[in-house]
Design goal:
Number of strands: 5
Number of helices: 6
Structural class: alpha/beta
Largest sheet: 3 strands, parallel
Oligomer: single chain
Strand content: 5-15%
Strand order of the largest sheet: 3-4-5
């Protein structure tokens, strides 16, 4: 992703082929260049890029040169195979190793963070924590005054797993919260976080 100032807002999209693709396919993918005049054109562009990469609803779900493949999956389903799991795992690890990558280590407060693979992968790729930002989701799922709450507070305060850029706590809206005003949401957030 490259950002530059221009007189007119626009987005140019291209595909960077995986080095292991056959030469003929690489050349074809390098020719893929599209521009967006407005955000409403994005769904059609995604479909074109998926078709160019050979990704379909009923066939292959992922490709090594697919930028949307950056989330880990653990179990095969109708849409994702065991080979997709391996592909995504290797892709994520490769991207995390790149020294220019910023790593978001996201853990859910619903589960013990020692059992969440994101922390191990982040530490393996960035042992000093210089490129990693920690994110804790679902803090509202913790029981008040519990050992779990204490351990996540220590994590959020960068006392247990230390990252140079620290930890950030993110509470997503429930369906019930989605219609609440900003003031009500802020008050709820303060209640959960403090």
């Amino acid at each position: 992703l490259q950002l530059r100032k221009t007189a007119q807002p626009a987005v140019s999209v291209s595909i960077v082929p995986d080095p292991n693709r056959p030469e003929g396919k690489k050349k074809k993918l390098l020719k893929f260049k599209q521009s967006l005049g407005h955000f409403g054109q994005l769904p059609a562009l995604i479909k074109k890029a998926a078709a160019a990469l050979g990704i379909s609803q009923n066939g292959r779900a992922f490709a090594r040169d697919n930028p949307a493949s950056g989330r880990l999956i653990h179990s095969p389903t109708k849409q994702q195979s065991s080979s997709d799991i391996d592909l995504i795992g290797n892709l994520v690890k490769d991207k995390m190793k790149e020294t220019r990558s910023i790593i978001l280590a996201v853990v859910s407060a619903k589960y013990d963070y020692a059992n969440q693979i994101a922390l191990k992968l982040a530490r393996d790729a960035d042992p000093e924590g210089l490129r990693t930002i920690g994110v804790i989701t679902e803090p509202d799922k913790l029981k008040k005054n519990s050992m779990g709450e204490d351990s996540f507070i220590a994590l959020a305060e960068n006392e247990d797993v230390k990252f140079h850029h620290g930890w950030h706590v993110l509470r997503n809206l429930d369906t019930e919260d989605s219609s609440a005003s900003l003031a009500v949401r802020h008050a709820e957030e303060q209640k959960v976080l403090f």
